[in-house]
Design a protein that fits this description.
CATH class of one domain: Alpha Beta
Order of helices and strands: HEEEEEEEEHH
Structural class: alpha+beta
Largest sheet: 5 strands, mixed
Distance between the termini: 34 Å
Number of strands: 8
Number of helices: 3
Length: about 150
């Protein structure tokens, strides 16, 4: 099967796939349990328990299909409880003919916006993730396999 991610229709399938990939990574982790999935998720897709830290975290999933766009966003009003250390963002990058790549970061990255993590109010108030040649190297710091060790 060819991985032509940009041809998947409707586009919401990539959102579902990003959530499934992120959730599966937590399920396969020795130190985490997925304890709740949210159906109406204004603020998170699911909740995990960190066995190592004995804490719980909400996880909100986003995706970027690089062959279509290099930007993803979360409207401010979708984060009812605001930016917080116990809200993690799971980002999955899809590139045609390549395996998806996972990233993980706390929502608090938007407290100090930069070129990668933007906080704009141009048309709408939104927290953005802008992946381009300048910011791609910065994104490596948030590789899922590296960041999951922090939670």
């Amino acid at each position: 099967m060819s991985n032509s991610w940009s041809k998947l229709r409707p586009l919401s399938k990539l959102d579902q796939l990003a959530e499934t990939i992120t959730k599966t990574a937590f399920i396969l982790s020795q130190n985490h349990n997925v304890i709740t999935s949210y159906i109406e998720h204004k603020g998170a897709n699911f909740r995990i328990a960190s066995l190592k830290r004995e804490e719980e975290f909400d996880v909100l999933c986003r995706q970027i299909c690089v062959d279509k766009t290099t930007y993803s966003f979360i409207p401010h009003n979708h984060l009812d409880r605001g930016l917080r250390p116990d809200l993690l963002i799971g980002l999955v990058l899809f590139v045609d003919d390549q395996k998806p790549v996972k990233y993980l970061f706390p929502s608090t990255v938007w407290q100090n916006p930069n070129q990668l993590f933007t906080n704009t109010a141009v048309k709408h108030n939104e927290y953005g993730i802008s992946v381009n040649k300048k910011t791609f190297a910065d994104l490596a710091e948030y590789a899922f396999e590296k960041q999951i060790l922090n939670y």
